[in-house]
Amino acid sequence: MNKPIWIKHAAQLATLASNVDGPRSKTAMSDLIIIEDGSVWIESGVIKAVGTTDELGNTYRNVIDSAEIIDASNSLVTPGLVDPHTHVVYGGSREREFEMRLQGSTYIDIMNKGGGIHATTNMTREATEQELIQQAIARLDSFLEHGVTTIEGKSGYGLNLETELKQLKVIKELQQMHSIDLVATFMGAHAVPKEFKGREEEYVDHIIYDMLPAIAQSNLAQFIDVFCEKGVFTFEQSKRIIEAGKHYGLIPKIHADEIVNTKGAELAAEVGAISAEHLLKTSNQGIKKMAEAGTIACLLPATALYLREQSAQGRKMIDHGVPVAISTDCNPGSSPTTSMPLVMNLACINMRLTPAEALTAATYNAACAINQQHKVGSLEAGKQADIVLWKVKNYQELQYLFGVNHVKAVWKKGVKVVDR
Ligand SMILES: N=CN[C@@H](CCC(=O)O)C(=O)O
Ligand SMILES: [Zn+2]
């Protein structure tokens, strides 16, 4: 059996401990439940106790000699970060489109001309499972280096049953091969594939009647997501797909109001989605509906930055009672980053979240957005020992010294997986 681990003398141990089951909203997002001179006792990959160094020193005094001791003096300790929205499994890359957008093309122009999601779909269809795994592992390694220990991953670059299943199978294999935990989302409704051009309703039927039963039977996905957007899937089409997904036991998420307001936030609230994503163009009414329904706003400030768009109204959403989570949106087109620390910085700078709110949005609320809050997202007895030791002395400094990777060490299920 592995030795117990005692992390002690943390300048700040941000526990994010919660006595509520669901996501945090309003002022609860600011309360990190910090322990100064904090410490954590870990056994067999699980957190056994959290408290001050004195308290745990006393509790475990008879077995301290058997433990590996980590001195976290002058450092911040937090839960492992959680990224609740990624498109991490894909073939190829699209750096030429980055250049094109800087020269004036828009994201939707490029997509309508066969680039964007369609280009990645071609490259993902052509790639073997092994190639997809190799490319995704490099991204997962980078996530881990940036303090991320759990992520969501979507299909959606197959747009036919065979390749959608291939992507989901790769996600399952990555879960077995890599220290990062992954949860999977079926997103066959990411775009209408070129072979269905002009026959959009037929593709919607194909998703509902052919793909969904097979996806459900494969047991490879927990969530369903739809790109509800002008020129992609309409409000009505998105609703049909989501309702069908719910029928098969998948939990809905919606890419909503990213480029144009199509009442995606209202739809997310109406269908009981666990989260709505992007929300750059969401109206006050959409915010109100999400607050009433308790829909988590999964905001992606790196995507807004990369597309040179105004960020979502994170500040307003929190003030109006919407629980907010944040994510990289890691994908080859609109946000090819794996840096959740950068996303936290941008959440502060461009959406006016406070440093504490940004940390809640990247840990506990992010875990809620993928229904993993019972296992991860906070430092509490009984949870997985997914822990980050940062080279900063408090949570404000983590957001203040921006654009830098402050990770010093990461433990996943009690095993040190990063040491910098
Ligand atoms: N907006 C839709 N889907 C992705 C982008 C996918 C791509 O461009 O390949 C997103 O969430 O940003
Ligand atoms: Zn996305």
UniProtKB/TrEMBL annotation:
Q: In which pathway does it act?
A: Amino-acid degradation; L-histidine degradation into L-glutamate; N-formimidoyl-L-glutamate from L-histidine: step 3/3
Compartmental location? Cytoplasm
InterPro entries documented for this protein: Amidohydro-rel, HutI, Metal-dep_hydrolase_composite, Metal_Hydrolase
The protein's predominant localisation is cytoplasm
EC code(s) of this entry: 3.5.2.7
- Catalysed reaction equations from the record: 4-imidazolone-5-propanoate + H2O = N-formimidoyl-L-glutamate
Segments forming domain Amidohydrolase-related: 76-415
Cite the binding residues for Fe(3+).
H85, H87, H255, D329
What broad class of enzyme is this?
A: hydrolase
| Amino-acid positions noted as binding N-formimidoyl-L-glutamate in the UniProt annotation, renumbered to this chain | Y157, N331, G333
Could you tell me which Gene3D superfamilies the record lists for this protein? Metal-dependent hydrolases, Urease, subunit C, domain 1
Taxonomically, the superkingdom here is: Bacteria
Q: Which cofactor does it need?
A: Zn(2+); Fe(3+)
What UniProt keywords apply to this chain's record, in alphabetical order? Cytoplasm, Histidine metabolism, Hydrolase, Iron, Metal-binding, Zinc
Which positions does UniProt annotate for Zn(2+) binding?
A: H85, H87, H255, D329
> Which GO molecular-function terms appear in the entry?
imidazolonepropionase activity
Role noted for this protein: Catalyzes the hydrolytic cleavage of the carbon-nitrogen bond in imidazolone-5-propanoate to yield N-formimidoyl-L-glutamate. It is the third step in the universal histidine degradation pathway.
Regarding protein family, the annotation reads: Belongs to the metallo-dependent hydrolases superfamily. HutI family.
Q: Which HAMAP family match?
A: HutI (MF_00372)
The record ties this protein, via PANTHER family, to: IMIDAZOLONEPROPIONASE, IMIDAZOLONEPROPIONASE-RELATED
- Name this polypeptide is given: Imidazolonepropionase
Q: What is the lineage of its organism?
A: Bacteria, Bacillati, Bacillota, Bacilli, Bacillales
